[in-house]
Amino acid sequence: MEDPVVSATAHRISNPKKVCLGLSIALAIGFAGAGCFEALTAKRDSDFIRDVFIADTFAEADKQIALVEAPRESDLLETRLEALALATARLSGFETTLHAGRGGPYKILKAPPADAAQIGGQCGNLTRLFTTAARLAGMEARRAHLYEIKGIDRPRPEAYVHAIVEVKVEDRWIIVDPIYGVVYRDATGRLAESSDLARNPELVRNQVTNRPRPTDYMHFPPAPYDFDLYHFAELRRIRWTILPGGEAIRGFIAKVVGEEAANEIAYPPSFERPHQFLAVIYGLSSLGLGGFAELLWRRFSRD
């Protein structure tokens, strides 16, 4: 039976107002559905990376550790990092977003890490995969970019010349280069930070030149390492040029907090997993539109 109060209220609301209210409700429901879809897809991708990519990689690393007499806890971590770097390096190939044919928001967000795990990618794609895998394995990791003002030859000069990963080990952010499969060490053999590599560029040259190379690349090896561009004089944790007015925003932040602090600003964790990021955006949009629809209903009811 129809509620007389609701019925009376509906009759008082004019047709244009009904359209506005109905559109708000429909959009709220649509965004909620899109958010649920993206959240489920994010979970599926995480399960694949954890149960297939990480599990297979760590199984090989654990076999190596089993051969070591009385291994230290750090031995297991370092062996797993090196195995993960080599497994990621095998995936060198075409840019993932283009190869997967993704458009829409992925033109900015780029392909999800699970895509790179399945079809390969370039340095940005593989750093995203390595960062996500490390986090799913319980490590603290973040993406970083080597910055060289001379830039590289692209349709538009690009100063963010190469993407790498930093992993936090004992309060130190150590450097991993996934596409070249290198876990850097300093002159003493300790896992290296960016400052170690900036002070001694020969560490980079020696380790990249003598690195173990995969014999079974998914597509093709990465381009030769450009030692003149790919150095560690300056690291930025966000590639600001992907954002509209990004460099201007960074410049303002740097004036307020200083260059070093500006360079420490990193992507939010969900940004490395586009499905998760979109689930959050769609969910917030749905809540906002739902609240807006409720306000419209209350206002129209009083008119």
Listing every helix as H and every strand as E from the N terminus to the C terminus, the arrangement reads: HHHHHHHEEEEHHEHHH
Average pLDDT: 87
Number of separate structural domains: 1
Q: What strand order characterises the main sheet?
A: 4-3-2-1-5
Question: Overview of this structure, please?
Answer:
The protein has 12 helices and 5 strands. The chain is globular, with a radius of gyration of 24 Å. It has one domain (27-290). The protein is of the alpha+beta class. Strands 4-3-2-1-5 form a 5-stranded antiparallel β-sheet.
Put the structure in a nutshell.
The chain is α+β, with helices and mostly antiparallel strands and 303 residues long.
List keywords for this structure.
303 residues; alpha+beta; five-stranded antiparallel β-sheet; 12 helices; 5 strands; 11% strand
